[in-house]
Amino acid sequence: MAEASVTFFSSSFSIPNPNPKKTLNFPSILPVLSISTSLKHPQASRSFFTPSLPSFPASNPNTRRSRENQCKFRVVSVSSPSRSGSCGIEREEVGAVRWGCDIDSSENASYLKRWLSENGLPPQKMAIERVEVGERGLVALKNIRKGEKLLFVPPSLVIDANSEWSCPEVGNVLKRNSVPDWPLLATYLISEASLMESSRWNEYISALPRQPYSLLHWTRSELDMYLVASEIRERAIERITDVTGTYNDLNLRIFSKQRDLFPEEVYNMDTFRWSFGILFSRLVKLPSMDGRVTLVPWADMLNHSSEVETFLDYDKSSQGIVFTTDRSYQPGEQVFISYGKKSNGELLLSYGFVSREGTNPNDSVDVAMSINKSDPCYVEKVEALMKHGLSTPQRFPLQITGWPLELMAYAYLVVSPPNMSQQYEEMAAVASSKGTSKKNLKYPELEEQALQFILDCCESSISKYTKFLDGIGSNIDNSIEISRKQANRKLLLQQLAVDLCSRERRILFRAQYILRRRLRDMRTGELRALTILNGFRKLFK
Ligand SMILES: C[S@@+](CC[C@H](N)C(=O)[O-])C[C@H]1O[C@@H](n2cnc3c(N)ncnc32)[C@H](O)[C@@H]1O
């Protein structure tokens, strides 16, 4: 059960490509939500500030749909012409769309609940309410026992790659081009959203956040300014680049060729950023359905807690999407789920929040390691790494409880001398976890150097965090006059960055302490052995 809640999965994204030189980009690791139950006060840092985002009149989702209206999209995007650079994140303003709602308004959520009930959602023991953690969430209406199954969302209310398109022509074009699940679902959401009342998902889409929170929605300068010390910045840039690349490919090969079906006002970078933001923060992978990725209305109103393990799955006996509580709840308590065993950086990357201090047992910090260019065996080492899908620099996660075998193997490779070139392969294989087994490499003659190398990496990282945390407020440019809305956003992002960086630096401090102690013990051990040896020498003299 816990295994299934580790919700990273590999997406094989590729549209059959007439030009094999041009590859389609898409993140190889994408997060998916899984579900579980609650903490008493899992206050996450996001709850300190409420960002004030542009507001537009919400469409009334209760309007009746007319079938003849199908495929007549409404141009509702308010995105401004993009000033973005090649990776699309140079812009100072993140485009917003009109779809969805401000999640602090509960009106759309009550339309959603009514619509779900009318369409087969059975009576629930929870209701959508404004909550302290996560803004909107599901709250127990009655006593809920530990081990109870909840939700029972019927498959007819779930969106997946096989869902029927309200505008079948658009769906047919994508299917003919064998567009994989993630970009297909992103396009599906945009297509349905643009149809408004003519889409059967209107009530669901109207209750989605207009601005999903995740690093996908930070500008390049925000990432550079606030996440300068954290490796999560790189991952955010990679993700933004992948999403942008995916949109550009779809646009080039499909949208631009059929503008009647895919008008630019609807299918553009801003609307894709919105739909990918929704997918990153709400998509669920269902283990009992061969890992099918789905959007599960209602279930996706549950917020995350790192201290519970229960997750969403399809339940054959009830034929619905359920989760089983792993604690009891009293009326009025918010019910939480687990989005998987994620570090705070990963939570910020996909969901836009950081867990409250000390509540995330899965927290880790990525440390970047690299082979020194002046290493006489630089080429051989890099070749060995590349053979196993690694590079230089390479990131490894460090946890409060220690570091993985892969990181140690990489460190051995970095410090190993030319006369050990026969072992480079083995080291790289273990570093990539693609070796024969998860092997604990042991090279006693290199251990001290390898540990010293890891310590140096941690200390250089610590100094970056300290510089950022000491300078926050003073090194951030306050000279530009900003509106209240921008000030709120700035405060929110600063707070998130400070929370993330303090948690990550704490893990590094712990690693520094352990490494220093281990090295000291090794060195005093060596010293003692040397003193004994010298004593013997003197004796024999
Ligand atoms: C699947 S949705 C959950 C429902 C969401 N609160 C809503 O109103 O639509 C995931 C989003 O909820 C918020 N969220 C979930 N768990 C949270 C937590 N522990 N602290 C703060 N925000 C949280 C984040 O904005 C995240 O992107």
CATH topology of the largest domain: set domain protein methyltransferase, domain 1
Q: How many domains in all?
A: 2
Which CATH first-tier class of the largest domain would you pick?
Alpha Beta
Discrete helix count: 13
Overall radius of gyration: 26 Å
Number of strands: 13
Helical content stands at: 25-40%
CATH superfamily of the largest domain: set domain protein methyltransferase, domain 1
By oligomeric state, this entry counts as: single chain
The CATH level-2 architecture of the largest domain is identified as Alpha-Beta Complex
Distance between the termini: 67 Å
Structural class: mainly alpha
- Tell me about the largest β-sheet: 3 strands, antiparallel
Categorize the overall geometry. Answer: elongated
Give unreliable regions as ranges. Answer: 1-69, 76-93
The helix-strand sequence is: EEHEEEHHHHHHEEEEEEHEHEHHHH
Q: Hey, roughly how much beta strand do the residues contain?
A: 5-15%
Cofactors and ligands: S-adenosylmethionine
Mean pLDDT: 83
